[in-house]
Amino acid sequence: MTHPTAASRPVQAVVLAGGQGSRLRPYTDDRPKPMVEIPGTGTPIIGHQLAWLAEEGVTDVVVSCGHLAEVLQDWLKSADLPVKVTTVVETEPLGRGGGLKYAAAHLPHPDRPWYATNGDIWTRFSLRDMADFHTERDAVATLALARPRIPWGAVKTDGFGHITDFIEAPPSTFEINAGVYVFSPEFAGLLPERGDHERTTFPHLARERRLAGFTIPQGAYWRAIDTAKDLTEAAKELAALGR
């Protein structure tokens, strides 16, 4: 087990912001998914992400753009940002793994670890704790894991088939990839030039026991913004949290 130090925590990150967000239409007709505003906050998803990364000690962020890249780039130029941001645009589709590799090549410290997050994740938890967890396990890559709530009500039954309880939107029994990562410096070299790292690099690292899973602490906020319903739910939850 490697002992973590403040120096082993990343100060750089990649935000993957190239998705089309077709399930979020009409919000994404004129803007990329990370530029969709969380209702009531006046700030797009990526604005919340950059603020969170800055709070967690990140100073440099590479934003990988795709769909309607210029809308995102214009906002980044005009906004008062808490971190130094560089944007990269794929000139041809490279797939998720290739896109991540291309973005990582623009990080300012190639010999240091880095965070990555999908551009549609709206969350708050300690990235510093996740980085220490990654270091302690000597992992090459660590995935944040979430237990999303199932969108339907669940039913509990006893051994005789009698219904004993109804549970509204229970948490899933399975953990899912929460779309937030810590990567060691060597990870970029293991990514494919094109294609999906979740089908190649991750399974390879899992077989070698070099892939770790950090469970987001209970009570921490996490939501993937995929649909219009997610936007309204996020606004409701934020109002309840008083943010």
User: Describe the biggest sheet?
Assistant: 7 strands, mixed
Estimate the strand proportion: 15-25%
The helix/strand series, from N terminus to C terminus, equals EHEHEHEEHEEEEHHEEH
Give unreliable regions as ranges: none
**Average pLDDT for all residues:** 87
Overall 3D shape: globular
Helix content: 25-40%
User: Total number of β-strand segments?
Assistant: 11
Continuous helix count? 7
Which class best fits the helix and strand makeup?
Answer: alpha/beta
> How far is the first residue's CA from the last residue's CA?
38 Å
Gyration radius (Cα, Å) is 19 Å
Largest beta sheet: strand ordering: 3-2-1-4-9-6-10
Helices and strands in order:
Blueprint: E1 12-17, H1 45-55, E2 60-65, H2 69-78, E3 84-89, H3 95-104, E4 114-118, E5 121-124, H4 127-136, E6 141-146, E7 154-157, E8 163-167, E9 176-183, H5 187-190, H6 201-207, E10 211-215, E11 221-224, H7 228-241
Parallel strand pairs: 1-2, 1-4, 2-3, 6-10
Antiparallel strand pairs: 4-9, 5-11, 6-9, 7-8
